[in-house]
Amino acid sequence: MLSLIFKSIKHAWFRNLLLLACIIIAYTLFGTLLAFERAYSSSDLTSTSRMITVNKISFTEVLPLSHFREVKRLESVGEASFATWFGGFYRERRNSLHAIAVDPQTYLNVYRHDLSLTEAEQNTFLQERGSILVGEAMARRFDWKAGDQIPIINRRLRRLDGSTTWIFKIAGIFKAASAIVDTNFLYIHYDLVNEARASDQNTIGWIVTMPGAGHNPGDMGQAIDRLFETAPDRTTTDTERSFSQIFVAQFGDLALVTIIILGAAFFSLLVIVASTTVLAIQQRAREVGIMKALGFSHAHILSLLIGESLAITITAGLTGLAAAGVLVRSASESLTLIAPGMSVLPWMIAVGLASMIVLALVASALPAWRAVNLTTANVLRRG
Fold this sequence. Notes:
Elements: H1 2-11, H2 13-41, E1 51-55, E2 63-64, H3 65-72, E3 77-85, E4 99-102, H4 104-110, E5 115-116, H5 119-127, E6 131-135, H6 136-142, E7 149-153, E8 165-176, E9 186-189, H7 190-196, E10 203-204, E11 206-211, H8 217-227, E12 235-239, H9 240-249, H10 254-283, H11 285-293, H12 298-331, H13 346-372, H14 376-382
Parallel strand pairs: 4-9, 6-8
Antiparallel strand pairs: 1-11, 1-12, 2-10, 3-4, 3-11, 5-8, 6-9, 7-8
């Protein structure tokens, strides 16, 4: 049986090659889409205890630094830090940077389980106000190393002297402690930026908190927001994951656009695959008639036709999923901010395999059944 299936596939090699290519592309899209959607939508990939507090009007609006001091006094707050967006670019506008000004000691305390760096690098960063910590992905992108002097141009945030160029020294290169941590960031001393900038002094972008022992993160978040109910700058506190998704949303709903495009492409390719399979079986009516004349049973011919469809679909589909795995692995680092922990998991392969079997059966079973139930004389006459 297998030898007959192989010979049949080889006989119409060009048509089957095109069919294989379509299925490979379809399942490459399928694996990539599923991995992206799972990583983007997952809520358990970031710390379940860290909460982010931002301005209630919009996360792009600043908060007064005094809010942080008041938050620290709450009984339910265990650890807290703050940060503000710095941005800018390196040499050319196309080299945009994810730069954040932070309070060094408290920030490293809150994120100590996410960032991996040596004690010497940490001490250098804490002691030298003009130093920065750079993520491994960003350092690799620009070929930076510890000790380099880095000019960052920020035309939105001018210095008191009117300059738009900020010079920093790299204290160390931090690595991700897990696959879900983005290292395409650099961290600057907030105090240095705050003293040197010409506007928005003593303001921050957001506050990050962790509850103390015996306290619930959600209850802590509500307590923080109640604290500023009557303040001019009211707050809203949510999970770290929600904040990340809101941050990404400023560039557009990337997840929705990606899912629509890949989903449409995948569906179109499946329609092509199904119609091609149906047409291929119909065109082989003469072969079916000859096989019936030679004494092949209906069950044998059905097995051959459906088996051929299964062999092509599963072989090409698994190849496509393998290609998706390679593609996802190569893109996962650059997409950590949007879809942390993006990967093709075993259950995705199982779902893909099941869909391949269904696709092959749906596309081949009915036309194969019709072909074998035609009388031999009519089939040969039609051929």
